What does this fold into?
Amino acid sequence: MAASSSAGTGERHWIRRFSASVRVSHWVNVLCVVILLMSGLQIFNAHPALYWGEDSDFDRPLLSISWASGADGRPMGVTNILGRRIETTGVLGWSRLDGRPVPRAFPAWLTIPSWQDLATGRIWHLFFAWVFVVNGVLFLGHSLVSRHFSRDLLPVRGEWRTIGRTVRDHLTFTFHRGTGTYNIVQRLTYLLVILALAPLAVLTGLTMSPGVMAAVPWLLDVFGGRQTARTVHFVVTSLFVAFVVVHVVMVVATGLVNNMRSMTTGWYVVAGRNVPQ
Amino acid sequence: MSRHARLDRREFLAAGIAGSAAIVLGGCDRLSAAPTFREFLGGAEGVTRRVQRALLWRGALAREYRAAEISGTFRANGSQDAYNLPPGYIDAAAEGFPDWRLQVDGLVIRPARFTLSDLRALPARTQITRHDCVEGWSCIGGWTGPPLSAILDRVGLRPEARFIVFHCADELPRYVDGANPFYESIDLIDAYHPQTILAYEMNGRPLPVAHGAPLRLRVERQLGYKMAKFLARIEVVNRFDRIGRGRGGTWEDDGYEWYAGI
It folds into this structure.
């Protein structure tokens, strides 16, 4: 990041913000996360309930998505979460597939494939899980070697002092056109996603595998049982989705074109006074 | 760049993203239905199998539980009642399957037929394990029966043997005439695993019909759909592409993975 600068016109200067490997791994990751999310929801739809512990206490799920007959006799989508019952007709539990209303947990537009098909959802999910893991390992390895990790992601000494102001700026949508380097909130968020969320997603996924469980039974103890691991997998996914939503909002709010250009071509425009020396 | 030009560009980008999302999702549906692309995605199964087999110590045991941890409700899936079973099967179950035999043949030296009492006379293993359904739920139950390896040692495998095929009494999606019975297959690594047993008891009682009476397979390091119920015949083969629709099992023929270790 912020490697070379060339002569810009007026106040604008072009800098090389992202290396090719960071850009490629970013977009491979986008593909993986979207497909893993949507095929994962397809898999979830095969048994739309979450439990705590080793086995499934079918009468007491933490979360379940189903349908029931409403007061007027018409079917409605019902989501039960931690004992609370919410009507979710149209989205969760009862939604439309090719124009026809059908009982299904997550709606057709959120699943791969759109129709109910566990086997196909699984082959998508398990293929892109491998791509996600290989891409993540290559990214981490390259980031350590190229010092992308230590230079751009690890918080810089003295930067911690700016955390209060940076959080306040984010909450009030006050952004300063930067130098192309990450602020403390970005660094901590990306580190959390790279070092906590992504590994947790993979490990809880593996804790659902009967083969891996025989080889590495302590994973079961770490997560407190297979059904707990499945629930944590779902929660981690939800946090991933929350991250992506905030991430995309920030990309748009801080200059969609400039940000997208820097993540595709590598080039980023900074104001003249911000050209790194 | 003028403000106007930038807005145009933003709108163009937003429309582009929405448009490509729709194309990508429609594309995913079309790809899902394309056999060649399914084969391509399915290639991950081979990677998973090789990696798990490489990392897994062959004798590594699935976790076993205490009797107190047995699930109150153990869900049954797939074939469970007369709807999927031949006429008279439920009556035979009520009488304790007097005429039932387990045929063991194929690439074996001494083909044999076992009655239930023959199987009960063999040394049995009891294991309380977690059953993980491909749908996502898990139940803990206790299973008793002879290890599959004891049966295979009895009949003696011929050197070219590679897979064990389980032919069952039930048919999916419903019983018609027994022409396309449920089947499953495993390789010799899982066949000789100490926890791979032919269970005639569940939680200390004769196997209930819903769980595959009188005999079902337990392969504890794979998902539930591999564990064939209502066993009728065990066939030892060197290839399974000429059985059923050729993918090694009824669920596999419907698109599920042959190696169900994840």
Remarks:
- Chain B has a mean pLDDT of 94.
- The longest helix of chain B spans residues 3-33.
- Chain B has one domain: 62-253.
- The helical segments of chain B are 3-33, 35-55, 89-94, 116-121, 148-155, 188-191, 250-253.
